[in-house]
Each structure stands twice: as structure tokens, then as C-alpha cells.
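Here we describe the complex-level prediction in full. Unlike the single-chain runs in Section 2.1, the two entities below were treated as one system.
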Amino acid sequence: MWEALKTALESNGLITGFVIVGITMYVAYLISNKLTKGLIHGSAIAIVLGLVLAYFGGVYSDGTKGLADISIFAGIGLLGGSMLRDFAIVATSFGANFDEIKKAGIRGISSLFIGVGLSFVVGIIFALIFGYTDAVSLATIGAGTVTYIVGPVTGAALGASSEVIAISIAAGLVKSVLVMVGTPFIARFIGLNNPLTAMVYGGLMGTTSGVTGGLAATDVRLVPYGAVTATFYTGLGCLLCPTLLFILTDMIW
Amino acid sequence: MVIYGVAILAGCFLFGMFCGELIGTLMGIDSNVGGVGIAMLLLIVVVDKLQKDGKISLPAQSGLAFWNAMYIPIVIAMAASQNVLGALTGGPLAIIAGIAVVLISWLVVPLLSGKKAKESAIEFNKNHPATGEVN
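The structure predicted for the assembly as a whole is:
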């Protein structure tokens, strides 16, 4: 009986994923409506529930893909993986206004450069406080606070130690999770209710999963504007961190 | 037909990814640079043109609207497959640096978006194709 259920769930992973996410969203909207009287948006709660599930998945399986590391829930990994995620992000631009994007063009692009530079510097400052003094480790940790992809890419290019690379990935993960959870709460205070600010936001924060998840929980109409800049951020970080930003770091330390 | 909408979306997606790979190769980095962003801009332009010419049927548009509306469920699946354990057990430096970078970036957002942003909030379009529970 258990075996039959397990086989049914495992061999139809993606479909299992639809059911799990459907149930999670139902519970989340129930909590949103009954417990917070709609004050906290249902999708924000659903994302937090997802992260909690991912935490227990990680504890249970000791893997790196959250709930998706448990075999019967592997389909969650496919549904939330980069292929379908990017496909759905592109679909969000159906309904976006091209004029708004053009209007915010310059600010969006400059926020990308400022975002990468600022994150890099903040990472370096904290690495210094924690006693790292060599340029390779500093640059790798700085790159990790850019995103959790830029960190290991930079670390590998510069030949950083695996301990430092692990720290850089973890710093990027903390950033991503915090942006995902925090965006709906901070949105009011930073004027995040229009396409222009959403594009600046995507360029400054950069973590695609964090930005698009956070904006989805704030106002789903903002997603395409944040995504259109955020998706350039990791590429820009991978370009700048191991080259220009590392050379600058190396000159100072 | 619904598939036409999905195919337009998929075609734009693949073209964007292809450009992103090319840009990455040209820059000499092993990463897709802006593929998704390019795909989004292309889709906006293509759909806008088709709508103005009246060449995209309602079922075709619903093929696009479906994936648009699937975005939040996919984000939740993405959240559930994050390495949250890794983030929480990454040590104090990782956690403090990760929190600090987010707080500082939040402070900079209003500085960069400026006053113009408030005006565009008023015009922010109310007709979103993802019908159903749009907030």
C-alpha cells in the first residue's frame, strides 16, 4: 500500500508538485484570510511556508535542494527549477508596459552597476571584520553577497579555498531568502509600488529568485519590471567580480 | 489555439536564452547573461505587435495568461527547493553579511528611484492579464 503510493508519487513527480503547491497555497490563503484578515498577503505566507518546508527537507535529507531532495517530493524541484521558473518569468511580461520599461531604462541600468558594486563592498567590509585579509578571500565573499552564483564562480576563478566559497554561497542564500520574505514588508517604506521602483529594485538586489519571489508576494504586477533588470545582475556580477572588482581589491589589499 | 500562445512564449524564451548564451560566450564567462531579460523584452514587443494587428486570438492569449498566472505557484515550488538549511548553517559571517547587504540595498532603493517613481504609480495599469486572484 505504502509502496504503491510511493511509486505513484515518485514516477509522476511534476504532477505531485502541482498538488503539493496547490495545498500549500490553500493553507497559506486560509492563514492570510482568517489569522491576519488579509493583512499579510497569501502568497507571502505561501513563500514562507515553502521555505519552512525546504528547511525541514534539508534537515531530513541533508541535501541542498530543500524539499526536492526527498524522493517523493522531487517534482517540486522540477516545478521550481530554473527552466520553468524562467519560462514563467518571461510569461509575466505578457501584460507589462514597454513604455514603462523604456522610461526607467537608464535608472534600471545604473542600478545594476550600483547594486553589484555596493553588494561587493558590503561583503568585503564584513569579511574584513571577520579577519580575512587576502584579496582572493575578500573578493570571493564580496561576490557571494552579490548572489550565490557569483560567489562560487568568482571563487573558482580566483582559486579561493572551499571554506571561503562555502561562506560566499551561504551569504548569497541568506540574501535571497531575506529578500523573498522581507520585500512585502519593506515595500511600503521604500515606495515599491510602481514599475520604475521595481526595476531599480531588481537592479539593486539582483537575486532573481529573491526579487521575483518578493515582488510576487507584494504585487504580482511588479514582477516583470523587477525581473527584467534582475536577470542581468548575475551575469554582470560574474563578469565584474573576478575581473575589475578583484583587481581593485587586490590593489588595496 | 492555446498552443499558439504557448509557442510564441516558448519561441521568445528560447531566442532570449540563445542570445544570453552568445553574450556570455562573447564576454568570456560561463553564464547566461540576460537571456531572460531579452526574452521578456522580445515577448512584449511581439505580443504588442500581434495585438495591434489583431493577429492573436483569445485562446492564444490565454496560453500566455496561463503561464503568467502559474508564476506564483512556481515561485512557491522554488522557495520549497531552496537550500534554506545551507543559509542558516553558513556561519555568522555569511548570515551577518547576507542580512547587512539586504538592509543597505533597501536603504538605497528610494535614493535611486527618485521622485518620478511616485507619478508613475498613479498610471500603473490596472488591467493585468493574470485574471483571478491578482491581489
